[in-house]
Amino acid sequence: MQAIRSGTPLLASGAEGINGVSLANAMLLSAWTDNWVDIPVDEDIYWSALQERISTSTSSKKESGAKAMEFTGTF
Predict the structure, then answer these.
(1) Following DSSP, what letter does each residue of 1-49 receive, concatenated?
(2) Phi-psi region at 16: left, alpha or beta (left = phi > 0; alpha = psi -120 to 50)
(3) More confident call, 42 vs 65
(4) Which pLDDT value is given to residue 66?
């Protein structure tokens, strides 16, 4: 936000953010397949594995009695 408002230099470039996401995706895919993966991750393989987990997920956003956490006054 400060970079936009006042020109404060960024701590990391957008490219570094993408590298972080790529690493996180590689770690997930490796755990899901219990195998080594190459970076960059094959997007089709990652997408298929992700969709499989989504389709078999038992998590629900509207579980009875579920509430959002309250963070007021924590910062």
Answers:
(1) -HHHHH-PPPSS-HHHHHHHHHHHHHHHHHHHHTS---SS--HHHHHHH
(2) alpha
(3) 42
(4) 66
The dihedral built from the CA positions of residue 19, 20, 21 and 26, taken in this order, carries a sign that is positive
How far apart CA 46 and CA 6 sit, in angstroms, is 39
Contact 2, 8 (CB under 8 A): yes
From its phi and psi, is residue 34 left (phi > 0), alpha (psi between -120 and 50) or beta? left
CA-based nearest residue to 47, from 28, 34, 31: 28
pLDDT at 21 over 80: yes
